[in-house]
């Protein structure tokens, strides 16, 4: 039988909560925390599972949870509430090791999504999910983006961050220069001095990187200058702008890779 | 000078709160409530403004608020908090008349978005925003969709619901039959027995209706059967599905109208 945890002050619980709350601690530990049966099962396909926590009720519903080859803890409902930060939780939680990914290991001639200072976790998550769905080979983040292994991003991405390399680069303009040196075309999403998407070819056999800025600020001039060209999604005058994850996903669909 | 409201129990405040909270009351009053300077200014371009409420601070920042030809109230900060339901508000609120729209007045040969039981206000709002952005002529809702004039939908749509007819039909399958009788093609978004989007022509000069179901359930069999054909967005096996407003917006982009 798995060990029981009855106290919210248990060290194993505090460790999980700290992983959920602190991006710096996740980086230090090369680990992250996820909540929810479906998300945990999905992540377990691509990331090493280290610890699993479940309530008695959750285990009765999903006895397969016991099969994971990792530390296991049966937690009381009030402990699950602390892990979840909410009463309405599914009683399934896990700690995973972060997949290691390096910019220099990214496939040359691949398709990439790059984000500059996109802070909203829902947008970062939805964009990672769309990139995985549309045959992209990886995601490149500037400093200041929401952590791809934070709880809200994991939820919005449905765990796609485990299925694809996601790397953070100290300087996004330098990363674009490197991709271009490898033969890729870097396309900045920008409203001005840009070509409308419907006039831009979607096929880039030597690789392409779609570069997107934050909802409020867009891309910095430095990153735009480091790209080959800029593209925009033409819209009517009836609205000022599109939702950020919608706009990015329409671009990703246009520049999609092979979908098998 | 505008009349001052110092009590949270003032009838004009209670009326606005009831509009914010109750879809049935909005329908009865043919009115709705909106919060935020940008959203209110945007909505005022397309919907009749009936009442405007602002704090002293908000008026000092945006003196143009006084120019609206409608009832005006200067509200104390604690009253603004009641209107907003939160402390962090911009101190600008308004009541608008709902634009009236009828299914039978929709332009024949137009482009439409139809939603069946899409309950999430963020998704309904983002989809209305995308439809307006991509040159659609209106939105058709089944019963059970989030109210397009509810506060969360207004925020997610950035007021686009005022710029386009949005109609609710008692029976979506009947509405599709009527659109087809007018010569339009109705396309159901469905994962099975459907054609991949990249193999489907986007131009429908006689009109097209893109029909989307809820994130969890998809479209009902009856609505799918009432359409001409079904389409799906092909995705890799790395994710199970796309975010609902992303998926709908990619379809809307593909079937976009003229964008001027």
From TrEMBL, chains A, B:
Under the heading Pfam families, the entry gives: MRM3-like_sub_bind, SpoU_methylase
Entry's Gene Ontology molecular function annotations: methyltransferase activity
Report if keyword rRNA-binding is assigned: no
Question: Has the keyword Methyltransferase been applied to this entry?
Answer: yes
Ranges of residues in domain RNA 2-O ribose methyltransferase substrate binding = 33-102
Keywords for this entry?
Methyltransferase, Transferase
Fetch the SUPFAM superfamilies from UniProt: alpha/beta knot, L30e-like
Where does the source fall among the domains of life? Bacteria
One of the protein's GO biological processes: methylation
Cite the InterPro entries for this sequence.
Alpha/beta_knot_MTases, MRM3-like_sub_bind, Ribosomal_eL30-like_sf, rRNA_Methyltransferase, SpoU_MeTrfase, SpoU_subst-bd, tRNA_m1G_MTases_N
**Per the database entry, which stretches of residues form a coiled coil?**
none
Cross-referenced PANTHER family, in alphabetical order? Answer: RRNA METHYLTRANSFERASE 3, RRNA METHYLTRANSFERASE 3, MITOCHONDRIAL
| Similarity annotation | Belongs to the class IV-like SAM-binding methyltransferase superfamily. RNA methyltransferase TrmH family.
Q: What is this protein called?
A: RNA methyltransferase
Q: Which organism is it from?
A: Allofournierella massiliensis
